[in-house]
């Protein structure tokens, strides 16, 4: 299962809110929030998040499990 770990700080709250609204599961792991999907891919689209450049391009800094299939200005896609 692809998992994105997001540091639980106010700057990343827009990312976590958007993940939850798109049906991704969130669970606390220490100082991080693990974002997972029941699908084969975990997909976040920037157009739904409205994150600043610094937040969007720092999305992977907390770590992840899986393979980065796409990470650009429009979409973050992790696959198993």
Describe the structure.
- 21% of the residues are buried.
- The chain has 80 residues and is of the alpha+beta class.
- The chain has a single domain (3-79), classed as Monooxygenase component MmoB/DmpM (Phenol Hydroxylase P2 Protein).
- It has helices spanning 13-21, 46-49, 53-56, and strands spanning 3-7, 25-29, 32-36, 41-45, 64-65, 67-71, 75-79.
- The strands form 2 sheets. A 4-stranded antiparallel sheet has the order 2-3-1-5.
What layout of secondary structure does this protein have?
Layout (H helix, E strand, L loop, with lengths): L2 E5 L5 H9 L3 E5 L2 E5 L4 E5 H4 L3 H4 L7 E2 L1 E5 L3 E5 L1
Antiparallel strand pairs: 1-3, 1-5, 2-3, 4-7, 6-7
Can you describe this structure in just a few lines?
With 80 residues, the chain is of the alpha+beta class. Helices cover 21% and strands 40% of the residues. The protein has a single domain, classed as Monooxygenase component MmoB/DmpM (Phenol Hydroxylase P2 Protein), CATH 3.90.56.10.
């Amino acid at each position: 299962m692809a998992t994105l770990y997001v540091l639980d700080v106010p700057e990343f709250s827009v990312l976590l809110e958007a993940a939850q609204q798109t049906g991704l599961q969130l669970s606390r792991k220490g100082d991080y929030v693990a974002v997972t999907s029941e699908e084969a891919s975990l997909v976040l689209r920037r157009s739904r998040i409205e994150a600043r450049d610094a937040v969007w391009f720092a999305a992977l800094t907390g770590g992840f499990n899986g393979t980065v299939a796409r990470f650009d200005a429009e979409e973050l896609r992790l696959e198993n």
